[in-house]
Amino acid sequence: MRKTTLVAIVVLFVSADPAGAGGVDHRYSDLPYSHLFDESAPALEPLPEVPHFTYQGPAQPPPKPPQTGFKYLVRSVGSDFKAFPQRKSTWVILGAGAVAAAAVHPIDDNVNAHLRGSNTVRTIFKPGRWIGYGWVQAGAAISTYTIGHLASRDDGKPNKIAHIGFDLMRANILTQSLTYGLKLTFRRDRPTGECCSFPSGHASVSFAVASVLERHFGYRAAWPTYIVAGYVAASRLHDNRHFLSDVLFGSALGIASGWTVVGHHGRDSFALMPVKTPHGVLLALTKVNASYSPR
C-alpha cells in the first residue's frame, strides 16, 4: 500500500507538465493546485509591510525621584493629598469598596460570630494583629528608607531601596491620615463596643503597602504582599476588632492611597495592536510603557 501511494504522487507531479514546455495539461487542470505549474500564471502578491513599533518608555521604570530628603518628602506628601481626590481611579476604587461594604453590612454580626471561638484559628491569625499596626508598618518603611539612603552612591542620587522606602513612607502618611480622619468622622463602634471601627486601619495600611510594592516589582513578584494584606485584614475579624464592612472599605482605601503615591510610575507591558492590511487585519504584539496615572 505504501509503494502504490508513492508512485501515484510522483505520477501526479510529473503529469502536470508532460511536454516539459511550461504549459499546463488540460487533462489535469481541474486538479487542486494545478495552477502552481502554469508558468504563465501571475506571480503571488508580496506580503504587505508591517509597521514597526518601537519602545518609547523609560529604560527601567519606575523613575527614581530626584531626591529623597525630608523637604522633598514634605512636598511629595502634600502633592499626594492634592492628587488623591483628583484621580478618577480613587473614586472608582472607593466606590467599589463602599458598595461592597454596604452589601455585607447586614451580615456583619453573623460573620464575626462565626469566626470567633477557635483557639487554633486565633493562634494562626495572631501575627496579623502585629503586622498591621501602623507603627510597625511605619517603622518598616523608615528602616527601608534608612538602609537605602546609607547604601546610596556618593553622587547623592537615591538607589532603588531608598526609593521604595521613600514611597512606603508617603503611603503610610497618606493612608493613616485618611483612615483616622474617617474614623473620627463616622465614629462607628467596634464589635466590642469601643470606638472607632470604620474603616480598618490594619487593612488600609497593609493594602497600601502591597500596592506600592506591586508597582515597583510587578504583580508576579509582589503578589505575596497582597496575600499578607488579606491575612492581616482577616485577622481583625477573628480578633473581633472590626466588622467585614470595615475591612472591605479599608482595603479599598489602602489601594487607592497606594496608587496615588506611585501614580506617576510606569512599567513595561505588552499590547496587541490591530494593523490593517490589504487582505485583512494583523494583530501586532508591541511593547509599550503603561502609565498608571489614569487608573
Would you summarize the structure shown here?
By secondary structure, the protein is mostly helical. It has helices at residues 2-14, 70-83, 88-104, 108-115, 119-131, 134-150, 160-186, 201-217, 219-238, 244-261; strands at 266-277, 280-291.
Please describe what this structure looks like.
Helices cover 56% and strands 8% of the residues. It has 295 residues and is mainly alpha-helical. It folds into two domains: 2-37, no CATH class; 70-263, no CATH class. The protein has a two-stranded antiparallel ribbon. Helix 8 (201-217) packs parallel to helix 10. It starts with a helix and ends with a strand. Residues 1-22, 50-60, 267-273 and 281-295 have low confidence and may be disordered.
CA radius of gyration is 31 Å
Nearest-integer average pLDDT: 75
Sequence of strands across the biggest β-sheet: 1-2
Outline type: globular
Instruction: Indicate the percent of residues in helices.
Output: 55-70%
Into how many domains do the coordinates divide? 2
Structural class: mainly alpha
Largest sheet: 2 strands, antiparallel
Number of helical runs? Answer: 10
The strand count comes to 2
Give the strand content: 5-15%
Sketch the topology as an H/E string, one letter per element: HHHHHHHHHHEE
Q: CA-to-CA gap between the ends?
A: 66 Å
Note poorly predicted spans: 1-22, 50-60, 267-273, 281-295
